[in-house]
Design goal:
Length: 150
């Protein structure tokens, strides 16, 4: 299974470079446990097209982050990723949405809508949180002590 953390942003350079460095740190840690990358998309349509586009493979499993989505514990998020892995899912796209929120088209295309909480976060910070939670989930699944049950 390959995990892609996608964000819709029109910025070429990050407003929060330290946040990008943290994202890279968690991606590097996660890569030891599962292939993972981060990608930026200029529009929602581009992200949805990316989710569909994979020659001779099924479309990516699309998990959208939205403040109105399901709030999961770290253990529940790990279980979700574990189920996807165990059912031979090839690609999982964890998507951080546009500033105006997801369209009805994107919401209907999503396999699940998740929430990082009801507060609004800048894209760069949301990406750090998602990257850290993916790393945490992967360590939970691997039985690694990083999470330690709290």
């Amino acid at each position: 299974m390959k995990i892609i953390i996608g964000a819709i942003t029109s910025r070429q350079r990050p407003k929060l470079p330290h946040a990008d460095a943290l994202t890279v740190e968690y991606l590097n840690r996660s890569n030891h446990l599962c292939p993972i990358e981060a990608s930026s998309f200029p529009t929602e349509a581009a992200l949805l097209a990316f989710a569909e586009r994979q020659p001779q493979r099924p479309a990516a499993t699309l998990l959208l982050f939205d403040s109105r989505g399901d709030t999961l514990t770290s253990e529940q998020f790990a279980q979700l990723l574990g189920r996807l892995r165990d059912t031979a899912t090839t690609r999982v796209l964890l998507a951080i949405g546009p500033a105006d929120g997801w369209s009805q088209t994107a919401l209907s295309r999503a396999h699940r809508v998740l929430s990082l909480g009801r507060m609004t976060l800048p894209h760069e910070l949301a990406r750090v949180v998602v990257a850290e939670q993916v790393y945490r989930a992967l360590t939970i699944l691997a039985g690694h002590p990083y999470h330690s049950g709290h």
